[in-house]
Amino acid sequence: MSALRALTEGTTDKGKPSVLRIVGIDLTRSFAICAAMLSHVWVVAEMDQFFSGPLVDVLAVVMALATPTFILLFGTMLEIVYLPRFTAGEQGKVSARLISRAIQCWLLYCLSIAVLYFTAENYSLKFSVATMMLLGVTPFTDILKFYAVALAIAPLLLWLRHRFGLLPLVIAALLVHACYPLIRAIVSPVDAGLGTEADRLAMFLFGIGHAKLGGPSILHGASLVIAGMGFGAIMKRMLGQSGTASRRLLWLLASVALVTTLAAPFTVTDGIRQLGDMSMRMDSHPLYFAEGMAGAVAVTTFAVLATQSLPEEKRKSIEAFAFLGRTSLFTFSFGNMILYCVSAKPTTAASALTLTIGLLLLIVALSYWFDRSARRDGHVKALVKSIQGAVSSTVETAMRIGTRRTQS
Fold it and tell me: What is the arithmetic mean of pLDDT over 185-206?
């Protein structure tokens, strides 16, 4: 069985290849969503008040890998799944699908803000609406805001990738980080008298200003998307070749990435703490992206290598346990909404640990229920399909109208 079956297998009703999920990527996404939700539960349970030390610092760095891993995998799937269709003349369909997903992310972001409006004391109606318009900030779900914009501009990245190749995009991404001191030296909108909302928007789009956002910015995050596209190109080529040479190269890539991940925090003073407490992430520091890229590449490559050569039966068995990766958007969105509703304040280490375990089990159970419900015929699947269908049809109609006006 060729390893290329990990990328395409079977045919659609039009005779075109259909995409098969790569189990290793689902496993990596499962790791990322677990790390992300653990980091948020850690905050809600106030675990830092009761647990500290070198092991906690290392755990914080592992949890911090969640966001760059998600973003890099997004770029990987752009390269593996969407680019072949884009270059095959389906630009309109691919763009409509990505924009539809962008709107879905934004709607989930708005829903999470609505929950905050009813549960958080400092979320007024005015601030909630401003946050929905990307001018505010949320405790945990700002990555949905990032994805909404990243998905919306993904067709442009695919067009640039198709038109100019991968190298110019990689060079542009590296230049962004090379210009880190210059970008951080740009005058903040607040200092220019433009207000807090402008400061948040500038930080969200370009990493400019003093606003304390979860990050990363769209400009800096795009570099991780491009890194993911490059990683996807490597994976696609290596998995499409037979023999041991390709696998050895992938093992080498994974090993180098792992060594880089372990060594990177020690290249700057107090690097482990700054990577773990989000200060480097909020500052769009190049080390954060280097560490995140290396960690994501290492975890993903090891996961793919460990699963791709397994018999079909074992891969299906492993896939059954990767439901968190398949439902990562749902898990992240509704898991954080659950956390917004938690009002308990632990007073001891035991109560904090109990709350942490309880919340994690609740989130995992909710994800498992949704995965099973969405894969079976029933009300949940019908509801999801109807919402996705409504968004997709609206986007397709808008694109048709826009095309007609452009041509007229």
Answer: 90
